[in-house]
Amino acid sequence: CVLTGDQPQALHGSGGQGTTLDNHFEAIPADRTWRVPPQPKPSVDGPQSAIVTGPAGEEIFCDEHGRVRVRFHWDRYCPGNEDSSCWVRVSQAWAGAGFGNLAIPRVGQEVIVDFLNGDPDQPIIMGRTYHQDNRSPGSLPGTKTQMTIRSKTYKGSGFNELRFEDATDQEQVYIHAQKDMDTEVLNDRSTKVRHDHTESIGNNQKITVV
After folding, report:
1. 129 and 110 in contact (C-beta within 8 Å)?
2. 68 three-class SS
3. Are residues 70 and 94 in the same domain?
4. Other beta carbons less than 10 A from residue 66's beta carbon
5. What does the pLDDT profile of the chain (210 residues) look like in tens digits?
């Protein structure tokens, strides 16, 4: 609608002419609810790097779904604690109903965060990466022929490790248990050694046949 009004009196500085008022507006029926036009949602273009956070003194901080909290590098005012972000989902190598791979990112690790369909409300950790402060297992490039899975003792310096050495004529599978190692076989077990076999036991050995 357009509302137009004329005022014959001239205002000071108007050159002796009257003023005109034009007012444009839109109206809706009284029985219709007015709603604000939706604003376009921001979109995040590409993945970002972040640091996993948690309470002071805590090394592993997650919820029942394995989600963690992070601090983005651009967030200068982030406290860097358990309130640094929303819970962020973590992509795993294999995930199913009660089975799969599970490795919770630990506090201080650098992670790569992407956003599903560019939605800032749907962050997901797609990977983890080493940097100057968080170095990889072994000593690169000298150990470049090794593939290693090494954990870290919770609030300690120990570790469990599974390592594959692929250097020519030095191939090896190495297993390290920081404390105990248990193996359960529900049926038969066979071992075949084509060369020497050495076994060293520092205390007692017990074998039970039932």
Report:
1. yes
2. strand
3. yes
4. 15
5. 666 766 666 566 556 566 777 777 788 888 999 888 888 999 999 999 999 999 999 999 999 999 999 999 999 999 899 999 999 999 999 999 999 999 999 999 999 999 999 999 999 999 999 998 899 999 999 999 999 999 999 999 999 999 999 999 999 999 999 999 999 999 999 999 999 999 999 999 999 998
Long-range contacts of 59-63 (CB under 8 A, 24+ apart): 59/106, 59/107, 59/108, 59/154, 59/155, 60/104, 60/106, 60/107, 60/154, 61/107, 62/104, 63/87
Rounded to the nearest 5 percent, the helix, strand and coil shares of the chain are: 0, 30, 70
Overall pTM surpassing 0.85 (yes/no): no
Closest CA to 152 of 110, 106, 100: 106
Residue 75 lies in a domain: yes
Residues 107 and 173 in one domain: no
28 within domain boundaries: no
Nearest to 70 by CA among 103, 44, 48, 101: 48
Between strands 89-90 and 123-129, the pairing is: parallel
Element (H, E) at 21: strand 18-24
Q: Which domain holds residue 118?
A: 43-134
DSSP for residue 157: S
Instruction: Give me the DSSP letters along 102-124.
Output: --PPPTT-EEEEEEGGG-TT-EE
